[in-house]
Amino acid sequence: MLLYVLLGFSAGLPFYMFSTVLSARLSDHGVALTIIGFFAWVQLLPTFKFLWAPLLDRYDVPGFARFWGKRRGWIMLSQLGIFTSMLAMTVTASDSNLAITALFAVLLAFWTTTLEVAADAWRIELAPTPEEQGPIAASNLWGYRTAMVAAGSGALLIADMPALSWPGAYLAIAVAAFLPFPILCAMRPDPALSSVRHPARGGGRWVALGTGLVASVLILGVATLVTAAVGWAILSGASGIGFDQNTDVKPLVFTVAMAPFLLMAAALPKIIKARPDSPLRSSAAIGPYVDFFWRYGFMAIAVLGFVSVYRMGDVLALNLSKPMILGLGYTKSEIGRADGVVALAASIIGVGLGGWMVTRWRWGVTLTIGAFFAALGNFGFVWLAHMPRGEVTLYIATALDQFGNGMAGAVFVVYLSMLVNPRYPGAQYAFLSGFAFLLSRLLSGAAGKVVTDLDAAGYNGFDMFFLASGVISIAALAFLPFLARTRPRPDDRPEAAA
């Protein structure tokens, strides 16, 4: 349980370092708001983790897996990836070359997501029953929530120290995120491995560690080269068509965002008519996902539209809230203190109340209350901008935002869980939770451009942006009258009837 506290802590720290904290760093270095918005697209990587997650089931990490097993081997490799990526972000903390900053931010996001995939798989194997799973899952979540304070608050407090600044902040968080690695190295070997039962076949702990480190250097190097090559191709292509910070990306983003819904509409007629023995429904690879659309029919589009919009206000605010607050004249230390105990306490209370509501009231009522409090958090930033500068005022705005996020998040998780078929709980929940943030993270990349354009048009860009993001949270409730009458089709397969 203590190890999973540290693994949750180790996964939560880097997420904030390539999202919220990075946006504050870029803003501090005078990077244009439009470019800061583009960096939000790095957060799309966790949404697509299902693309490489099967590799962690199929392949071992050379060296590490020989002594510690498949799961711990991937966790150790991911830890090294996170540590080296943050060291690279420490060295390049001046942000003089934004392409290099983007490269290491993407690598940090990739290895952070890989760590979560490996840790989740190992957790399920360690604790196969609900009674065993509960304490470990809670430990992991507690560590993750604690990381919010350490990254969101600690990094900003360190960055505000002239002797340390941003390099010191990233170095400190890199060391903290690396804490589980030596503990994993000291753990017992996997008793199921033949190399452990017969040491001559695989060597001991030190041989496995040395071999694993060499293999990790090669793997990390290849991953860096591949990421750099893909990034160079994307940036070159974008530059070739004249794409830069002055480009209006909104039409492109909306086109990409609408593509999944158009594809679903085109595929649904065939899916709805599919028989139980159809390859579409019986496939181990796509069957669980097809099942969701078969059960809900054309209402699946409305359901996915709702889940895409419900948390959009929170996600949009995540990337630009720190640049706005810095622009109001608040110091990094003041923001760090607000993001510390105040934010954590408000978030925990919001999660608790949201969890209590779903046990007492209908989901329509709880979703409505959650949406209004999430919107109130976004409106709080507008209120903050028009109040006299004061640290208590900042605490109130931060508390409103975190309380609303916590409450809406807890209610939303329960609603998503209600949508899945118990036959495919893991796959369908992964799909829904990933899709729920795909649209909002796509649009986040255009948020900086939206604020800049509003300022150019004579409006207060941040005011309009946070007002609009709050209204979006409430606008999601327009789906509820339709969804209230939505019922999934009963499973028509013989084994389901039995």
- Overall outline: globular
Order of helices and strands: HHHHHHHHHHHHHHHHHHHHHHHHH
Roughly what percent helix?
over 70%
Main beta sheet = none
CATH class of the largest domain: Mainly Alpha
The share of residues in extended strands comes to under 5%
Number of strands: 0
Mean pLDDT: 82
The CATH H-level homologous superfamily of the largest domain? MFS general substrate transporter like domains
Task: Kindly report how far apart the N and C termini lie.
Answer: 39 Å
Q: Provide the low-confidence segments as ranges.
A: none
Secondary structure class reads: mainly alpha
According to CATH, what is the topology of the largest domain? Growth Hormone, Chain: A
Number of helices: 25
Oligomer: single chain
The CATH architecture category of the largest domain equals Up-down Bundle
Please give the radius of gyration in angstroms: 23 Å
- Number of domains as seen in the coordinates: 2
How would you characterize this protein structure?
The chain is mostly helical and 498 residues long. The chain folds into two domains: 244 residues, Up-down Bundle (Growth Hormone, Chain: A); 238 residues, Growth Hormone, Chain: A. α1 packs antiparallel against α7. The protein is globular. The protein starts with a helix and ends with a helix. The mean pLDDT is 82.
Write the layout of secondary structure elements.
Elements: H1 2-17, H2 20-28, H3 33-39, H4 53-58, H5 64-68, H6 70-91, H7 98-126, H8 130-159, H9 165-177, H10 180-186, H11 194-197, H12 199-202, H13 205-240, H14 250-272, H15 279-282, H16 287-296, H17 299-310, H18 312-327, H19 332-358, H20 363-385, H21 391-419, H22 425-456, H23 461-475, H24 480-483, H25 494-497
Helix pairs in contact: 1-7, 1-8, 1-9, 2-18, 3-22, 6-7, 6-9, 6-10, 6-13, 7-13, 8-9, 8-19, 14-22, 17-22, 18-20, 18-22, 18-23, 19-21, 20-21, 20-23, 21-22, 22-23
